[in-house]
Amino acid sequence: MKNRTQSTNTGISTNISSSVKANVSTDLNSKVMTKTVHGAGALLLLCVLTLIFSPVARFPSVWILLSVSAVVLVAAALIVAISGAGAAARNLRVGMLRHIGALGWVALPVSAGLLSGLVLSVYPWQGAMVLAEFIGALVVGLTVAILAQGAASHEALKRGVTSQVTTQRNSCQGALEGSNAEVWLRCGIASCCVIVGLGALWLICTPKHSAMVVAWLNSVENMNYWGFAFALLISCSVAVVLSGRIGRLGITVALLTLLAAAALFTWLSLSYPSRGALLAALCSITLLVLLRFTRLPLKWLFAGTAGTFIFACVATFIIQSADWMSYDALNALSSRRLLIYDTTWGLWQQAPWFGWGLEAYKNHGAVEVAKHMGGLFFPAPHNILLEMLYSLGVVGSALVLATLGRILWLAMRATREASNPFAGLLATAIITTLVLHGATDLSIYRPYFFLLVFTAWGLVQGSTPNLQSPQRQAGVGKGGAIKH
């Protein structure tokens, strides 16, 4: 009896010891995964904020993004190689393969369009730098998808932690850590907007300092690009507020963010009216509100956005042909760009199908425009549709627009159909502000353009990858409701 009692006590002690070790191992694994999730959120915030200001700091931004991308991709490869049998590594490997496959399908049309302009244009084989920057944008987009997956997928976190803790505890812990990772991005964007908005409010009250700041900003980069960067910040901040999840402060942070965005918008309107950027921000915010608070069909909203872009690009030609406004008045309204538009339109008609080439505008189109503009040199036609038609022709332009439309559609679907609309709202804000402002400014051949395009894709792909699967599409009923 004594031996049996000792044996029983020994067994109990062994079970307790095993349980304690399992709990200690669980806590260690949970802490490691928590730090990983927070790291993914912080790196994702760095990427997004760098991209927002990439129009005014192009080359430093590109190097920062590519450096982050290299670190993330190497770290992911090491995790898969070192712990290839683990659940976390297995989920990461499957996610990377899924992201690469999805990126291939999305990038295929625009890749074909750029290659057609490189090979079949009037001036072929000129555009190696454009292709290099495009490949860099693909890498950054893939990195954003991986980071977004790590920041949002608390289910993968739960599967990666093997423990004896109850399912309820695991579920709560995973949800908490997933939300903590998202707080990095939400609160980071909102905080940046509040800081810039407070500065804008001070400048509104001190016109002398405002003039000095505008002069300094213009010395760094053209104020139109600053206007675009600030418009992106405004649109993304409104997307954060409309997503409904900012943090513990809730309504206070939301109101402060909106007031800061309004102050920044007001300062831009008064100090340096970048009309294209401000109108793009207003149109983007309107679309976000309609997506979030109405049940209008996605097809209508998508068609309205596409129609707005096309009309904005060709509005000057419509007004001229209909004789609705005098030439001088229309030229003043378009910031003296009518000759640029008319000359570029005429040049496109000379090579309508495959265009003049990826980098032909600086050496050919701008030279022709300068002949009519008193020698003034414009490296881009200030209209991305005209720029695409001139450099890529109808064929290449259609392929590029197909990719832009596809990414916008995915972002809008994610806003309506995903359980968390934040990624869809943020991606929609980025791509609509970019494209709509491109109707009056910008260039598709500057590094920031495709970086922003594929970052929008990466946010949606990493946060809501199942939206692109056939099973998910089959589960969508009429009116955008998901069948359960």
Question: What would you note in describing this structure?
Answer:
- The C terminus is likely disordered.
- This protein has 18 helices and no strands.
- 80% of the residues lie in helices and 0% in strands.
Rg, Cα atoms, Å: 26 Å
Task: Give the class from helix and strand content and strand pairing.
Answer: mainly alpha
Q: What is the N-to-C order of secondary-structure elements (H for helix, E for strand)? A: HHHHHHHHHHHHHHHHHH
Percent range for helical residues? over 70%
Work out the oligomeric state of the chains in this entry.
single chain
| Uncertain spans | 19-29, 154-179, 469-484
DSSP summary: helix tally? 18
Q: Using the alpha-carbon principal axes, give the shape.
A: globular
**How many DSSP E strands?**
0
Approximately what portion of the residues adopt beta-strand conformation?
Answer: under 5%
In brief:
The protein is mainly alpha-helical and 484 residues long.
Keywords:
484 residues, mainly alpha, 18 helices, 80% helix, globular, disordered C terminus
List the helices and strands and how they pair.
Blueprint (H helix, E strand, L loop, with lengths): L1 H51 L5 H25 L4 H33 L8 H25 L1 H7 L6 H39 L1 H14 L2 H20 L8 H21 L3 H19 L4 H25 L4 H7 L4 H13 L9 H13 L11 H34 L4 H17 L8 H17 L6 H5 L10
